[in-house]
Design brief:
By secondary structure, the protein is of the alpha+beta class. It has a single domain, classed as Gcn5-related N-acetyltransferase (GNAT) (Aminopeptidase, 3-Layer(aba) Sandwich), CATH 3.40.630. It is built from four helices and seven strands. The protein has helices at about 15-30, 40-55, 105-120, 135-140, and strands at about 5-10, 60-65, 70-80, 90-95, 125-130, 145-155, 160-170. A seven-stranded mixed sheet has the order 1-2-3-4-5-7-6, sandwiched between helices. Strand 4, helix 3 (about 105-120) and strand 5 form a beta-alpha-beta unit. Helix 1 crosses helix 2 (about 40-55). The termini are far apart.
């Protein structure tokens, strides 16, 4: 996987379609990424069109992991937070193709998102993941600290409730407390 390249994605019909396919695959496999199964291609493409438009405005960054010509994963870094939170960013929509999991792609995406957050002057990252079948092991391996669990937070893609685990990580040096 030495050819893996992480780069920012742009609002393009081809990219949108590839991201939509990845989102549909993730939801169908039970990934808790805010959508229910079955997810229509139109709804998935609409989500990515809006997300990439927000990225073009600087409100977020959508990073893609490319193995040659294949988009094998993505992560979103939310940057447009309330005025009293200019020091933090939020990780969202970390997804890896099912047939590419366990190969370090999610780790590379998370490290790239963290580096970008530091470049943007952020000192705190937050994220959440499903209590059941989420990526808590990955986040803990990457130095995130569990803040707690919220029970029955969301519906799983195929139905039934799941809790969410909330994580945080200090990045880019010391925080400034005022």
């Amino acid at each position: 996987m030495n050819s893996l390249e992480i780069r920012a994605l742009t609002n393009d019909a081809t990219i949108n379609a590839i991201l939509a396919d990845l989102l549909i695959e993730t939801v169908a496999a039970g990934g808790s990424v805010s959508f229910m199964h079955p997810l229509s291609p139109e709804a998935a493409e609409d989500f990515w069109r809006k997300s990439l438009a927000a990225a073009a405005r600087g409100e977020r960054a959508v990073l893609g992991a490319w193995d040659g010509e294949a988009l094998v994963g993505t992560v979103t870094l939310l940057l447009d937070l309330p005025p009293n939170q200019p020091h933090r960013a939020e990780i969202a929509k970390l997804m890896t193709r099912r047939d590419r999991r366990g190969k370090g792609i999610a780790t590379r995406l998370m490290r790239a998102a963290e580096e970008l957050a530091i470049e943007k002057g952020k000192t705190l990252l937050v994220l959440d993941t499903a209590s059941e079948e989420g990526a808590s092991g990955l986040y803990e391996k990457l130095g995130f600290t569990l803040a707690g669990e919220i029970p029955d937070f969301a519906l799983k893609p195929h139905g039934g409730l799941t809790g969410t685990l909330v994580y945080w990580k200090r990045i880019g040096g010391r925080s400034s407390r005022r």
